[in-house]
Amino acid sequence: MSTKQKTLAVHAGTRLTGSKAVPVSPPICVAAVSWFDSSDDLDGALDGKDYAYARISAPNTTLLEEAVAALEGAESCVAYASGMAALRSLFEAQGLRPGDRLVMPADGYGVTRALYKKLCAALGVELHALKLTDADAPARIRELRPRLVLAESITNPLLRVADLRVLAKASHDVGAAFAVDATFPSPMGQRALELGADYAVQSTSKWLNGHSDALGGTVSGSRERIDVLRAARILAGDVLGPFEAWLTLRGLRTLPVRMKAHAEHAAHVARRLSESPLLERVIYPGLPTHPDHAVARELLKDGGPMVSFEIRGAGRPEAMRFLEALKVGRPGPSLGDVCTLVMHAASASARRFTPEEREAAGIRESLIRVSVGLEDPDDVVDDLLQAVARGVAR
Predict the structure, then answer these.
(1) Which of 213, 220, 288, 317 could staple 74 via S-S, CB 3.0–4.6 A?
(2) Comparing C-alpha atoms, which of 22, 193, 212, 20 is closest to residue 11?
(3) In this structure, is the dihedral angle defined by the CA atoms of residues 267, 292, 156 and 163, taken in order, positive or negative?
(4) Contact 148, 103 (CB under 8 A)
(5) 43-52, pLDDT tens digit by residue?
(6) Direct distance between the N- and C-terminal alpha carbons of the chain, in angstroms, rounded to an integer
(7) Is the peptide bond before 157 cis (omega within 30 degrees of 0)?
(8) pTM given for the model
(9) What does the pLDDT read at residue 275?
(10) Are 114 and 352 in contact (CB under 8 A)?
(11) Where are the alpha helices (DSSP H) in 103-152?
């Protein structure tokens, strides 16, 4: 098969090993248990050689894992019931002990920070939150000598773009595993494993699914690393259901064309928003004004599908009025849908940050994050600007 991503998105994960029939749309297999005429076959299935029990493996999940691995350029992939379950399993697979250290973004996704704070506290692991786009971040990693470094391809919600190549080298120099949450660009915008990551994490609930109708998460990497995660998943039971796997695989088929359109629309929205005097600043990696624009041009295939901005002079009341005034965009705490989703960062993605953590990250009450949809981009901009005007009106 071709290794080009557009072809892989359509054809990867379409047939199960051992069958000559290849349905154009894979059937949904809801059976949790399978039986065998041969006890030897049953014995092999319980070791993962076939489908015996859905907690061990299931057809729809296998097809999705094969497709995601192909798009990520990975040897293997394991799917979970949610992106957070994937991140938790990744943490637990490192075998961290009291006194070990973990590094993660200080300005990244607040729920990931809250999860890792809890897990680290329970084990006596030191958590160090750094701005991984700072020039001294690689030196700090070498100084701290962590066991695990987690980065975000594009941070949530400030859309900073770290040089993953430099962070990967610093991590590997001290023997740390380097993981990247690459949800924001999707595999179509960046293949983190090619930039040195040991693990590429996706919240498949977002762009891979693309329609806000199925939760899920994946971790991709070498077969050796993923086998450890897969064995742990069998015991923990964090399995992705057949309907969710089927819906995500269906959405993945159109990922290349959707992501191209999302990025083009986002670039248009960002350019027009940057002309508005009602906004303090517009944050988009594709704009020359973005602090990481040069790195983004090297590491991302485009400017990405997300735009953030700060409303001039706005606090939380003005931001809430802005959300209520939207007519095309939908106020929602997620991203990756065909429709534009708009979020107040301080009360949503950074909701679990303490006020001190939000201040250190630079997440202000005026910050808005936009997952740009497939509507006419001028309609999206016009809607955002009218809602800003109504939000700040006295």
Answers:
(1) 220
(2) 22
(3) positive
(4) yes
(5) 988 888 888 8
(6) 60
(7) yes
(8) 0.94
(9) 97
(10) yes
(11) 110-123, 137-144
- Give CA angle at 254 (375, 194), nearest 5°: 110
What is the C-alpha separation between 276 and 311, in angstroms, rounded?
10
Say how far apart CA 255 and CA 137 lie, in whole Å. 33
Quote the crossing angle between the two packed helices 83-92 and 223-236, to the nearest 10°.
110
Supply 136's token pair. 């001294």
Residue 38 has pLDDT above 80, yes or no: yes
DSSP, res 382: H
Pairing assessment for the beta strands 330-331 and 101-105 based on DSSP bridges:
unpaired
CA dist., res. 189 & res. 184, Å (int): 8
DSSP class of 345: G
SS3 286: coil
Residue whose C-alpha is closest to residue 310's, from 347, 350, 352, 364:
364
Amino acid 11 reads: H
Query: Which residues are identified as catalytic?
Result: 55, 109, 181, 206
Q: Are 204 and 232 in contact (CB under 8 A)?
A: no
